[in-house]
Amino acid sequence: MKLESVDTPSLLVxxxxxxxxxxxxxxxxxxxxxxxxxxxxxxxxSSYFVQMQAKKGVTKWCCQKLCEAEGILPNTDDxxxxxxxxxxIIGSIKINRLIALVETYSDTRFGVLIDDIExxxxxxxxxxxxxxxxxxxxxxxxxxxxxxxxxxxxxxVALAKHVENNTPxxxxxxxxxxxGKLQHVRTLEDRLKVMNVVxxxxxxxxxxxxxxxxxxxxISGGGTGTFDIEAEAGLHNxxxxxxxxxxxxxxxxxxxxDGNFISTFKNSLFVHTxxxxxxxxxxxxxxxxxxxxxxxxxxxxxxxxxxxTFTQLIEQCKVENGGDEHTILxxxxxxxxxxxxxxxxxxxxxxxHCDPTVNMHSTIVVIENGHVVEEVNVEGRGVGK
Length: 385
Fold this sequence. Notes:
Helix content: 25-40%
Oligomer: single chain
Largest sheet: 10 strands, mixed
């Protein structure tokens, strides 16, 4: 089936581009033997892409929420042998769901984040009743000001000692040091400045832990926008990048050392949409807030070609959110590519933010050479339970 036969709006992934992105990151990390890739499932939320990564040599993964693991793992053909849930599991309902996962997938090694001793006690009690174990990483607040204990603090030492001395069903493995906002700092100079702050906080934490006889097997974190400078810093030994698979408009605004837009990874994610109305100076597309996220900015219109490349149209028009079901493209030149589009024509939108856009769709249409390869389920989507 050709792309023209796909209904709109639909979420598309160009297969050759996403496969190239996986190879690119794995090849880049070969220069840093101390760092291994632990890609994030929260971007694609689909067993199809987990298996694609496994075929390229990935051996461990992370996800953000229990619902992602619950949805994805049943369809991975047991290729996931190590899964870190990069979140604290709080409350009896969620702890029982974690227990169910650990019981069901006994060949998978599960890990969770911790930042509170009472939560550790609750996890220990539930795991002990079933004679199960999970490994834990203490989340360190390296600048996100979200979850986590303060870097280089006695709270971090107390947490680690409590795990080692009082919770035999929790295995201490190290620390989680992820700074999400750093991924979108635009210039390399500014990213390096923030990265230096992060590195100092990581070093403060590991030094204090080592002083107290506590080792960190894992120092996990890193992302698509920072994997290279974090690898160069030599502190993290795991990279939790996820967006590199698909990319989006926001990541495309990051700059390299020469001030050029970074193009390490290719855009492979698109919202397929149709022109449903046309006036003398604007088009109305049939995809709005229900089909793509604009929390990180408006989408960028493109014409996708059969070889996976595309023609950018953003210079020809102004994009406006038209509400839940519409996007508006305003144009001045009726002879431009945008101006020549007619009702019933299809174009594509690169989302401003890939993760929440994927979460809006129950399926992804995988295309290659302009043809539909298959339609895959987004099993891990949901509100984040």
